[in-house]
Design a protein that fits this description.
Strand content of chain A: 5-15%
Subunit structure (chains A, B): Homodimer.
InterPro entries (chains A, B): Aminoglycoside_PTrfase, Kinase-like_dom_sf, Methylthioribose_kinase
GO molecular function (chains A, B): ATP binding; S-methyl-5-thioribose kinase activity
CATH architecture of the largest domain in chain A: Alpha-Beta Complex
Number of helices of chain A: 14
Oligomer: homodimer
Number of domains of chain A: 2
Order of helices and strands of chain A: HEEEEEHEEEHHHHHHEEEEHHHHHH
Helix content of chain A: 40-55%
Enzyme class (chains A, B): transferase
CATH superfamily of the largest domain in chain A: Aminoglycoside phosphotransferase (APH), C-terminal lobe
EC number (chains A, B): 2.7.1.100
Chain lengths: ~400, ~400
């Protein structure tokens, strides 16, 4: 018998004991210390390290309620989905996700590679650091994890069993509400709009019927389109970076959904970094340099994604109709249209919904924040309404720059 | 212990014994007789009746291989899917499916209402009988079973668990191959083309790249679009009729797929009845009357489907965005476009694929059959390529009549 034979919510010292007993990482002469370092809404994250060596491990445990509220009940099955997704993505995109050492079904915890020498990308972008290899890495990650889990590549029976295994009803519902519904009607009365923008938001989001019709169509695509195993929460807070390497973490929202959901989230969060720099950087040259890097990165993400997608399709596609003339081009163009739409949704929901991003909330100057938010939402509406005209990276950036001039400082 | 405690393939006398032991249908003084009456490719169907009363039952059993070939291995889980679907559809569309008495997981058999006083609709249509209430019944069935199993009506978490439960990989693969692939490339070399039409079929189907591109798009919709719990094999051989009543049977292909798949199959099979009459009926007035009834029925099926769909949507939709202005109209128009496309696919695959329909194969006159097949395939290509222009029942019929004149007798 071991204390870890049945579920309980671990303390930091439990996590250290767990690591010593269950993981074969540390030597017998180790001296373990442990700390809870989680800052998300849902889970507990323990870092366990040996004071006598450089060995360490991350243990992420899911509770039966969310970390932020006892009232928010949530199945710990999300931890299984996260662990299985990390392993699957690690096979498909080697080196781009942390290594999983063990998934423990009893404790709903996943032990994985410690990435403490990396920085969370959002924090780094808020310091206006640039990552020249990011577009290269993230596009490899997305093309491999998306295209190679789709019916283009997988045997269709095998794919159907993956769809079952990655069914993720509770976390999908969070997205269905927070991304696809509430930003456009506040029907749960929990939007959190920056007060000076409230009337403008009502007019631009809650009262734009053309926009709401497009959002309804997109919501049903998210509800029904089992296209690929998507990460499901691919913002810059789910990415660890350093100068040479990128690691994508936290795929607990993973399920079979539309590919554009991942690509669009990345684009939107790059735009948040851009508006933050635009609103807060005093040194004009540095500001222009950073914004240029973001713009180039947005272009590169779209265009490298497309180029790699076509290459992998050509080399790896197994579906017999995949080689039909014109089909891969058509399929990819749909993904890019979806990307534009989802980028728009993410831009809206982070501005007006309950889950903000620091890129926006850290803008202290009121009129600068007001302008930054309006730029984001105006870009968003263009992306959503005109999504079928987006095909190239440059178009995504051009919309941003056009909208920038609509809102003079 | 009972002999029915573990799986074996029943004989007719086993089925009678099973009915006596496991079902509470017959009295103790009954005298049971039994016969295997199945004529499908996959399963065994026993009719068990009491010689001393009017009581009877149908017992449908699935083997671990298909009835037609020991080499064709197939999970008997299809019997569970069929039984659960019949029960679910019976709740959603009362009176339009046979009553299920018992599903037996051990023997993979389903005991249900005996409909021997009904006729299989395809056989009745081959005798050129008309069923004035059919459009009314089938549209109620389709609207209720499709719309009420979709995200428009169901709680999205509940719907996701239904998607899992109705995952049907093996039977979907049959459709993916026979409907969405082989008719357009014969890549498994098992198409069975009427020889006098072979060159024409090669030109019109195998060598039409524009058509093949549209088919590839449609195949991926079938592979990914978990829209509603569809019947999955809704042709006139899956429908029992009499003058006043309609019963839809055999939903073993059921899974979460595109709504238009069911509606399109019905339309295509009505067209088969039309071309059969056109090719074989000697009495001109009777022929015109029958064809008129089919044409009106096609119109009614589309238009009543649309009217009932809008009514049920208005009364029953639970999804918060369902009332978004214009959304229900847009959603329904997509279903009708899909209907046109699927009608086209079904028309093609029954003409050139391995699973024919008697409406075509029973046309004895060679030039009449040749013409009938060309009418079907030409209509089909219009439905597939121009699917986005189809919105009203009349348009479906107009295409048929236009094509009829392209091929003078």
């Amino acid at each position: 018998m071991s204390k870890f034979d049945k579920y309980f919510l671990m303390s930091p010292s439990d996590a250290a004991e767990y690591a010593a007993e269950k993981l074969s990482i540390f030597c017998c002469d180790c001296e373990l210390d442990s700390k809870e370092i989680g800052d998300g809404n849902l889970n507990y994250v323990f870092r366990v390290w040996d004071k006598n060596s450089d060995k360490s491990v991350i243990i992420k445990q899911a509770g039966f309620t969310a970390r932020i509220s006892e009232d928010f009940k949530l199945s710990p099955d999300r931890n299984r989905i996260e662990a299985e997704t990390l392993r699957f993505q690690g096979d498909l995109a080697p080196g781009l996700v942390p290594v999983v050492y063990k998934y423990d079904d009893t404790l709903s915890c996943c032990s994985m590679e410690d990435l403490s020498d990396y920085t969370i990308m959002r924090q780094a972008l808020l310091q206006h650091k640039i990552f020249p290899k990011f577009a290269e890495h993230i596009t490899t990650f997305m093309v491999n994890t998306l295209l190679l889990t789709s019916d283009v590549f997988l045997n269709h029976q095998e794919k159907k069993s993956l769809v079952k295994s990655y069914t993720n009803p509770e976390l999908c519902e969070i997205t269905e509400d927070l991304v696809y519904t509430e930003p456009f009607n506040d029907y749960k009365h929990r939007n959190d709009v920056f007060l000076p923008n409230l009337d403008w938001v009502k007019k631009e989001l809650y009262n734009d019927n053309e926009l709401k019709l497009e959002v309804a169509k997109l919501k049903f695509d998210f509800l029904t389109n089992a296209q690929a195993l998507i990460h499901g929460d691919l913002h810059t807070g789910s990415i660890f970076v350093n100068e040479n390497s990128t690691k994508i973490i936290d795929p607990e929202f993973a399920f079979y959904g539309p590919m554009g959901y991942d690509v669009g989230n990345i684009i939107a969060n790059m735009i948040f970094a851009w508006v933050n720099a635009d609103a807060t950087m005093d040194n004009e040259e540095e500001c222009i340099n950073f914004k240029n890097w973001v713009e180039n990165t947005i272009c590169e993400i779209i265009d490298k994604f497309k180029a790699k997608f076509m290459k992998v399709w050509k080399e790896e596609a197994k579906e017999v109709l995949a080689k039909t003339p014109g089909f891969s081009q058509w399929y990819l163009s749909q993904v890019i249209h979806d990307t534009a739409a989802v980028a728009g949704l993410e831009l809206c929901r982070r501005i007006v919904g309950m889950a903000h991003v620091k890129d926006i909330t850290s803008i202290e100057n009121e009129s600068a924040r007001l302008r930054a938010e309006r730029i984001c939402i105006t870009v968003a509406k263009g992306y959503i309404k005109n999504r079928e005209s987006y095909l190239f990276g440059e178009q995504f950036v051009n919309t941003l720059k056009e909208v920038e001039y609509e809102f003079p400082r």
